[in-house]
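B., you asked whether I could sanity-check this one before it goes into the benchmark set. Here's the sequence:
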Amino acid sequence: MSGQQVFYRPEHLPMLEIRQASATSVAYHRHSHEEFSIGVVDSGNTDYFISGQTRRIGPGAVVLMNPDQVHACNPLHLQSWSYRMLYLQADWLAALQADVLERSPDSGFQAMSQSLLCGDSHYQQYHQLCSLLISPHSRLSAEVNLTDYFAGLIQADQHCDTPAQFKNVSHLQRAYEFIADECVREICLDDVAAVAGLSRYRLVHAFRQHYGITPHALQITRRINHARQLLKTGNSIAAVAADTGFTDQSHFHRHFKRQVAVTPRQYQLSAGYR
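And here's what the prediction gave me:
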């Protein structure tokens, strides 16, 4: 049984590819990838070969493979399994490692020491990340969460502490004002980091530490505040969703209700527009 396999290659995230396989019994020869690979078993059991050893793993297991590291994951005989794999360019991850570990940008990729993570928290974090990366709703959200997730992996792998509180608030203020001014436009994390004069990782960490929210959360907040003003002037909900940068009405509806506690239609009706 070959099952179904789908590849996701988000245009705004050229450094990664996601593979989703459902109910497949296809077996692989031992192989390696140029990218850093991380995946999760959604269902079924598999024999996981890496570093010269084979381990039997099941649902919820998160597997990690360094670039060029020989490995194989194969379902048990006559059985099928479902899994998701994320392939990330090694140079992108190396740059993040240098930032998180405060090393020279030229130090190159440092192999991760762990090849298997078990536990529901690891599975849920991976699931949430993949869902966000596959969703076309926000480039900034995808980049913030991608940076956050892999920075956490690096810190855990190296047993290092998170950075101390960021002192130069003026850098963060510039980022805040840029996001507020450009909230309806599709901006990327590199844009915000450049305005702040910080790396992507330092920006994400320090911004949340200082303001209590991520750069993307601020973008959504400002979009919803702008949408409220447009709804009160009688603009159609579809037009407001488009004018405030949301990809579709359901995306707009979900975020509006989460922040305002009523739907856009209920809010508009309360303002006297029918």
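One thing to flag: The first strand starts at residue 4 and ends at 8. Otherwise nothing jumped out at me.
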